[in-house]
Design a protein that fits this description.
Length: 171
């Protein structure tokens, strides 16, 4: 029983709300989820961490557990990058993906994991559209090469540039 208490206390200690989630917390939550479900449930109820985030952390811990990677290296890479690569890691490719994470920004890493096309000098444009205008935007993107993914759109940048190309004067 004392060991169970230590595991729960460790999880609560690692759930410091002033810091990003840690690899160690993900590992502890995975352990609790697999071996101490009553503690896992108590953590969800008492930690102040959202239920969704707790399950997500446990899933990342599950992806990392069989690999035996040094937590110091994972912590040095950072939580943002680890969550991008975690579901892709296997014993055969872990070193490759860890090096990739160490050598790239989170944005570039996510692009490479998604489609292999990071754009280092890319600019970001945010649109605030009414529901009616968003439907028009979505239709235009879909008609010009974009696709729906869940509630979002994929390849909207390519579709938007195709639309702009139809109207822009040649330089």
């Amino acid at each position: 029983m004392a060991n169970k208490t230590k595991i729960y206390e460790r999880a609560m200690e690692l759930a410091d709300h002033g810091k990003p989630p840690s690899i160690k917390l993900a590992a502890v939550l995975h352990h609790m989820q697999q071996h101490e479900p009553e503690l896992f449930k108590a953590f969800i109820e008492n930690s102040g961490v959202s239920r969704r985030k707790v399950f997500y952390l446990g899933e990342v811990g599950k992806c990392l557990a069989p690999l035996g990677l040094p937590s110091s290296r994972l912590e040095a890479i950072g939580w943002s990058k680890i969550q991008v690569i975690a579901k892709h890691l296997t014993p055969r490719n872990a070193e490759k993906f860890l090096r990739l994470a160490e050598q790239n920004t989170t944005h570039s890493l996510a692009a490479q994991m998604r489609d292999g096309n990071p754009m280092p000098d890319a600019r970001c444009v945010m649109l605030r559209l009414s529901p009616q205008n968003y439907r028009k935007f979505e239709d235009a993107v879909l008609q010009n090469g974009g696709s729906k993914v869940g509630r979002g759109l994929r390849d909207k940048e390519k579709a938007l540039m195709k639309i702009i190309g139809k109207f822009a004067k040649s330089a």
